[in-house]
Amino acid sequence: QGKYHRVVSDSCEEVPEELRGKLSSIHTHGTCVVVYQDDACAGDWAAIAPGTYGHSHLNDIMFDNRVKSIGPC
Questions:
Q1: How many whole angstroms separate alpha carbon 35 and alpha carbon 55?
Q2: By the number of CB atoms within 10 A of the CB, which of 4, 8, 40, 46 ranks highest?
Q3: Whole-angstrom Cα distance, residue 66 to residue 60?
Q4: What InterPro entries does the record point to (predicted)?
Q5: What pLDDT does residue 26 have?
Q6: 9 three-class SS
Q7: In angstroms, rounded to a whole number, what is the distance separating the alpha carbons of residues 3 and 18?
Q8: What are phi and psi of 53, to 5 degrees?
Q9: Which residues pair with 40 in a beta bridge?
Q10: Is 41:71 a contact under the CB 8 Å cutoff?
């Protein structure tokens, strides 16, 4: 287990600079989030909910080390 960033907002958040290019899994804490390839919740995206395929291994859905922003579902 490495570094983590907890999202507690109901709006778009940028991934902190020190974690950009380093996210390889998402723990949704029982909610749903959308991860985006670009800043400002833009670009390619994937919705991730509890039990969603790929949430524990973002490489399975082609998002390993590519998440730059996160927003609510």
A1: 10
A2: 46
A3: 12
A4: G_crystallin-like
A5: 86
A6: coil
A7: 9
A8: -55, 130
A9: none
A10: yes
Q: List pLDDT tens digits, range 14-58.
A: 999 988 888 898 888 888 999 999 999 999 999 999 888 877 889
The type of residue at 17 is E
Note the pTM of the prediction, 2 decimals: 0.86
Contacts of 18-24 spanning 24+ positions with Cβ under 8 A: 20/68, 21/65, 21/66, 22/65, 23/58, 23/63, 23/64, 23/65, 23/66, 23/67, 24/57, 24/58, 24/59, 24/64, 24/65
Cβ–Cβ under 8 Å, residues 71 and 36: yes
Q: What is the DSSP letter of 28?
A: -
Query: What is residue 27's DSSP assignment?
Result: -
What's the confidence (pLDDT) of residue 66?
A: 95
Confidence (pLDDT) at 55:
77
